[in-house]
Amino acid sequence: MFWYALAGKVMSNVAESFVDNVFRKTVYPKIGSIVYCDLALGFCEHSGVYVGNNEIVHLDGSGYVEIVSPEKFLNRLGGLNTAISIYVSCTETVSVGDVQTATRARAMIGKKRAYNVLLDNCHQFSSGCLTGNFNNTDNFLWMLKDRTRNTLGANSWRVWNRPQIF
């Protein structure tokens, strides 16, 4: 029974990603956009901040804040994840970002945090970039999305318009 449920979740995520990439309008992020990708069948996601020049600042799993390409951002866990697309914070179909958010993210590059998958993770880092409060409690993607809506006015998430591999 578990394997059927797992297979169903995988197929659902693949179908959703296909629709998001092929039929929905894709976007380019703005400086300071919040971005995320799926890591584990919709049960776990990874987030960061787009800072321009095709670069994302994120908190990696070892606790270091680093700047990476979209490809490296998607290749979390050595590629052993279900990430296909990077989603961008948007208002309707237009990407939204904030220069101050990107400035805060850049200022954190090279710093180390006491990473914990539940208590000090990438979502809290991304939320801290939005607000300046890196000791927040936004430790799940839905909380980060709430914060992004309240801070940037983001009410939707669109796929980053970049070559996709299916």
The proportion of residues in beta strands is 15-25%
Give me the secondary-structure category.
Answer: alpha+beta
Distance between the termini: 27 Å
- Arithmetic mean of pLDDT: 85
- Reading the helices and strands in chain order gives HEEEEHEEHHHE
Biggest sheet descriptor: 7 strands, antiparallel
Please describe what this structure looks like.
The radius of gyration is 15 Å and the shape is globular. It is 35% helix and 20% strand. With 166 residues, the chain is α+β, with helices and mostly antiparallel strands. It has five helices and seven strands, in the order αββββαββαααβ.
Quick description:
With 166 residues, this protein is of the alpha+beta class. Helices cover 35% and strands 20% of the residues.
Task: Walk me through the topology.
Blueprint: H1 2-22, E1 34-38, E2 45-52, E3 55-59, E4 65-68, H2 70-74, E5 87-91, E6 94-95, H3 99-108, H4 122-131, H5 141-152, E7 156-159
Antiparallel strand pairs: 1-2, 1-5, 2-3, 3-4, 5-6, 5-7
Helix pairs in contact: 3-4, 4-5
How would you describe this structure in keywords?
7-stranded antiparallel beta sheet, 35% helix, alpha+beta, 5 helices, 166 residues
